[in-house]
Amino acid sequence: MSDKKRFGYDTDREIYSAAKVRALEALLIEKGIITDKTVDKVLDFFETEMGPFNGARIVARAWVDPDFKARLLKDATSAIAEMKLPAGMAGAEGEHIKVAENTPTVHNVIICTLCSCYPWPTLGLPPYWFKDPTFRARMAREPRVVLKEFGVEIDPSVEIKLWDSSAQIRWMVLPERPAGTEGMTEEQLAALLTPEAMMGVAKVAA
Amino acid sequence: MQEGYITQEELDARTAEYLADGNLTDAPLPSGGSPKIDDQVIKYLLEGDSPKREAPAGPKFAVGAKVRIKDVPPEAHTRLPGHLRGKTGTVTEVYEGAYAYFFSTGPDGIGSPMPCYAVGFEPAEIWGKALSEEKSTVYADLFEVYMEPA
Question: Would the CA dihedral through A181, A157, B138, B121 be positive or negative?
Fold first, then answer.
């Protein structure tokens, strides 16, 4: 059976979506609702100001500074504000952030089963698959199976905690610091981090 | 569209034009617009729009409380996941203050400031034992109006 028959979508849906997005942008510019620069300005903001590079610095700091880590787990929004990060760390979708710490006995995963809630200032915009209804449904019900598909095998002795962002808190994961990184600087540690590790669908490799 | 900014017809017509054109990467866009709009967009990104408010009344539930999740009338913007309706969980955190939602969801019940909680659920309670994985917990952040004592 073809994918089209099975799932009921057109195989040229990508090109159709691209045309529709462009049409939408054109109409909104013509009507004066956005400008010809709005989309580029927003994209640029997420490439330079708000993104996973901030989350990486926060995690690296928590790895090297136990007092900071304690403050981060207690009140992430205040702890993040201590750091010299770009302005806007408590801006859009980052007003109230919580951090879940991975340990040898607990593995955390963030999801949003209703839509795509995500901490924009520290992780940027969510990847497209985070919003996929199938991913959302399956991660809620069979996290071990889905994590295995991501290449992450969680030992049966480790508890999985799923954090569903269904109200006004935005969640991120503090991954475990990998072995063999003892001599690394904070900057080198930050370079090891990926958005996936801070969502709980990847481990950090040294 | 619901707000009347654009119509389905003009979006369909323009999409068809871009599709017929073929080369989307180089397809031209209109120009112009007030820079004030972009300033406002960036201001929102920088400052956010916190829904946190003073709590009008103290939280009804404490950490450790057993709660049953209500099955309120479904509305488009509900913040109550379908799989939690009718299920029983345990409050694991009471968030400080109260949280508004950006508009009223009517009979669904959120909008005005109210306490929010993290509630933990056993997977077997949600999916049944046969469909659940061992050793995992589902935590959901929930508005108080969705909860009642179990």
Answer: negative
